[in-house]
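Please study the protein below:
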Amino acid sequence: MPMLISNEPDFMIHGVLQYQMFGQDFWITTTTIGMWIVSIIILILAFMANRTLKKATDVPGTFQNALELASDMLDNMAKGILGGNAHRFVNYIGTIFLFILFCNLSGLLGLRAPTADYGVTFLLGMVTFFIVNYQGIKNHGVGHFTSLFEPTPVLFPINLIGELANPLSISLRLFANLLSGVIIMGLWYGMMPIFANIGIPAALHIYCDVFSGAIQTYVFCMLTMVYINDKM
């Protein structure tokens, strides 16, 4: 897989290591490495959080205080949409929230955000799609399918497209916003003179990685809960 010349804009996914399995060629890409790093960071933080909460005190330290604040914010967000059913889904919502947020923020570490790869966001959207439809079948039975013919059978194609569009829309929204940030930063670093890469990119990273990344994480999780609640 050819690499771009160093002084040219570079915002593509690159193959790092090629291997064969079942007679097929596979690649470990920059996306794969980015997800590994993000997963390791999350696991380390989870281990530290577990140890901290096991030794929780009445007067919390900084880390314990941050954990309790984050937990309360997540619970309130879930209860605001799912109500009494929030406890059933808060673990899933919390997991994808942390994963997406850390993937979006990984640009601050010099990585190419894994969520700027549609293969990642599409799978996140499909997981949400299966959870949503499972809840629809579980709570409404055959009515989950007959509702596609309401209020009139003529609207079945539109209702079906609407159901299929949900996972595509949330996955494309997350992917497109993160990819645009990756392209902007790639163009800046690749086309601007070296003196313009001191200080100024920090403001771009704050917007593209921190602000936009946090907003898109919130939107993805919020829409996931809205879709689930619609089937409850």
User: Anything to note?
Assistant: The chain is about 70% helix and 5% strand. The mean pLDDT is 83. The radius of gyration is 21 Å. The helical segments are 30-54, 62-82, 86-105, 118-140, 143-146, 156-191, 200-230.
